[in-house]
Specification:
Layout: E1 3-7, H1 11-23, E2 27-31, H2 34-43, E3 48-51, H3 60-68, E4 78-82, H4 86-90, E5 98-101, H5 106-117
Parallel strand pairs: 1-2, 1-3, 3-4, 4-5
Helix pairs in contact: 2-3
Length: about 120
């Protein structure tokens, strides 16, 4: 069972996403901001990170930059899900393997997860 870390300060959206992924057989860990996600990833490496862009303490962009600058997490695939900052994420294809605009279709997200984990 692949572990997926979800970083989003919108608790209900993160919980809903975790439920969707767990229904598909994935294990999930939810973090409420980028710094918490970074600590969780460093303590137990996941197979994938799904992150929001705008979060307190550390943004999704800062989180991705920290992970891609660390040789231990350089190859961790990252999906950015964002309301208004998707265009910024698309400018950083070196950081994000996939960028989805909120609201996204669950099928679209699950297809991206499956593609990145196989």
């Amino acid at each position: 069972m692949a572990l997926i870390v979800i970083a989003d300060d919108e608790f209900l959206l993160a919980a809903m996403l975790a439920d969707i992924l767990e229904d598909e057989g994935y294990e999930t860990v939810v973090a409420s901001h980028g710094q918490e996600a970074l600590e969780r990833i460093r303590s137990r490496r996941p197979a994938l990170l799904i992150t929001d862009f705008m979060m307190p303490v550390m943004t999704g962009l800062e989180l991705a930059m920290a992970l891609k600058s660390d040789p231990k997490t350089l190859d961790l695939p990252i999906i950015l899900v964002s309301g208004a900052q998707g265009a910024i994420g698309r400018q950083h294809s070196e950081l994000f393997e996939q960028v989805l605009d909120k609201p996204y279709r669950n099928e679209e997200l699950l297809a991206a997860v499956e593609r990145l984990l196989t």
